[in-house]
Specification:
The protein is mainly beta. It contains 3 helices and 9 strands. Strand 7 (111-117) and strand 8 (125-133) form a beta hairpin.
Length: 159
């Protein structure tokens, strides 16, 4: 008998953006850098049908977090994003709204471990912790306790 397919019970979405280079001499309104033009495409991908459920094109300089702060997800939604969306106020807003998120902390993120759970065996999980964000202004931006899971990537072996 084959492996049972894993499914999330909650709505699962991915949030990401990409820069689309443009010729600055043709699109002078799209100035990105001194000699480069660009726009940025921000997308939310709904994993139910693997189709975008939100898209926005901005100037290339618009930071990912600025767009994410304007998005609203239903309680229980799981948002997967990259380090470009690391913003402690955003984490607090999502937590207040009952939205779960999965992201990679920046290398210089400071936190205090409040509790540790035994990681499951043979699943590539190195640690499972409850943390409190620390560092300059972090506790004021996000007072929530967060869960931190450290895992080994199956495809590369990286942590």
């Amino acid at each position: 008998m084959g492996k049972k397919k894993f499914r999330f019970k909650n709505k699962l979405v991915s949030l990401d953006s990409t820069v689309i280079d443009l010729c600055l001499s043709l699109y002078d309104w799209a100035k990105f850098r001194r000699t480069k033009g660009a726009v940025k495409l921000h997308l939310v991908l709904d994993h139910d049908g693997y189709l975008p459920c939100f898209g926005l094109i901005t100037e290339g300089k618009v930071h990912d977090v600025k767009v994410a702060q304007q998005l609203h997800f239903a309680p229980g939604t799981i948002v997967v994003d990259d380090r470009g969306y690391n913003d402690y106020r955003l984490f607090a807003n999502w937590t207040d709204a009952g939205v779960f998120f999965v992201t990679r902390l920046k290398d210089n993120a400071r936190f205090e471990v409040v509790a540790e759970r035994a990681p499951p065996q043979n699943r590539g999980i190195l640690c499972d912790q409850t943390i409190r964000l620390a560092g300059a202004g972090a506790p004021q931006k996000c007072q929530h306790l967060l869960r931190r899971v450290e895992a080994v990537r199956e495809d590369t072996g990286d942590i």
